[in-house]
Amino acid sequence: MNLTFFNGRLSNFGKKETMKSRYLLLLLLGCFAFGQVGIPTKTLWQKDLPKGFHFSGQFFKGLQWTDAHGDNALFLTETGIYESGAHKNAELFAYHFINGAMQPDWTVYDGEKDCPVDVEASFTGSAIAITDLDADGVSEVWLVYKMACRGDVSPRAMKIIMYECTQKYAMRGEEKLIMGEQVTGGEYELDAAFKTAPRTIRDYAVKQWKRYAKWRL
């Protein structure tokens, strides 16, 4: 698969009418392979970052896939921990590009800044997913990450962010901290977009939360 598209040139997928037929084939394969409508992806690397676009942080993960809208590219970056005076910071970023555009059609930024104690902001790499749960031909992009500014053992903030086109969905709360028989945290709140989303999407979000929120000590 030609990835020169991500450096500002057109890919070899051809015209839009062939994109739709190619997507339908991938969708059928995804149904058989995943048991749900998961979209096959290809790994991207730092060298595939669009030339001339300024990215914050260090490269963490990249994915490429095709849906009814064409060629998609997702890049995730993290700053790690860095200091500013006596305080610490940690930030993360996500950038989504469509059809070879040199500017993202949506971005995610979050993090902890000016923290006087231990700080963290990091993606959960295994939870990053591309789906089409509502079978409308348009991909859903799922991001899961955790953040903390703390000087003790307490639950970290956790978020699930999903994008379908440029529509953002957010699920916010804190991880479930399990210490022996004691359980702390685990609560979450769906935003208005998630509350009105199709049932299949809401169910997937809750399933992902329950899977990745657990933290055992």
Q: Care to describe what's here?
A:
InterPro entries: M949_RS01915-like_dom. There is one protein chain. This protein has three helices and 14 strands. It is of the alpha+beta class and 217 residues long. It has one domain (4-216). Strands 6, 7, 8, 9, 10 and 13 form a six-stranded antiparallel sheet that branches. A five-stranded antiparallel sheet has the order 1-2-3-4-5. A hairpin with a 2-residue loop joins strand 11 and strand 12 (182-185). The longest helix is centred in the N-terminal third of the chain and has 19 residues, at 16-34. It is globular.
Residue share in β-strands: over 45%
How many helix segments?
A: 3
Radius of gyration, CA atoms, in whole angstroms: 18 Å
**What share of residues is helical?**
10-25%
* Gross morphology: globular
Order of helices and strands: HEEEEEEEEEEEEEHHE
Structural class: alpha+beta
Please provide the count of β strands: 14
The number of domains: 1
Distance between the termini: 43 Å
Largest sheet: 6 strands, antiparallel
Average pLDDT over all residues: 87
